[in-house]
Amino acid sequence: MSITVRSNQKVFTEEEVSGLTGICLEHLRALARNKHVGYVARTAQAAAEAAGAAGDQAEKWLFTNYDLMLVAVLQPKCQH
């Protein structure tokens, strides 16, 4: 599988990785948790909770270029 990305892009959102690899978000998140690939960004949620507002924003996974390549190798495209 060949994935082409801009050379200056350092971080990819879970939506971008899903679109580039053909892996659904559910499987991508499970792979990220099980294989310790990527990292969770909770800054917006934590800031809202600290300000006293209800944090309605779900956690978002972010992936480096290296993580993207690992995901592409480890997980086949989803067929559903």
Concise summary:
Helices cover 46% and strands 14% of the residues. The protein is an alpha+beta fold.
What distinguishing features does this structure have?
alpha+beta, 80 residues
Oligomer: single chain
Instruction: Please provide the count of β strands.
Output: 3
Measured between the Cα atoms of the first and last residue, the distance is 19 Å
Order of helices and strands: EHHEHEH
Count, helices: 4
On the 0 to 100 scale, the average pLDDT is 82
What radius of gyration results from the CA coordinates?
A: 14 Å
Please give the share of residues in helix. Answer: 40-55%
Helix/strand/pairing class, anyone?
alpha+beta
Query: What amount of the residues lies in strands?
Result: 5-15%
Explain what you see.
The protein has 80 residues and is of the alpha+beta class. It has one domain. 46% of the residues lie in helices and 14% in strands. The protein is built from four helices and three strands. The protein has helices spanning 14-21, 25-35, 43-50, 65-74, and strands at 11-13, 39-41, 60-64. A three-stranded antiparallel beta sheet has the order 1-3-2. The longest helix is centred in the middle third of the chain and has 11 residues, at 25-35. The chain is globular. It starts with 10 loop residues before the first strand and ends in a 6-residue tail after the last helix. The model has no long low-confidence stretch (mean pLDDT 82).
List the helices and strands and how they pair.
Elements: E1 11-13, H1 14-21, H2 25-35, E2 39-41, H3 43-50, E3 60-64, H4 65-74
Antiparallel strand pairs: 1-3, 2-3
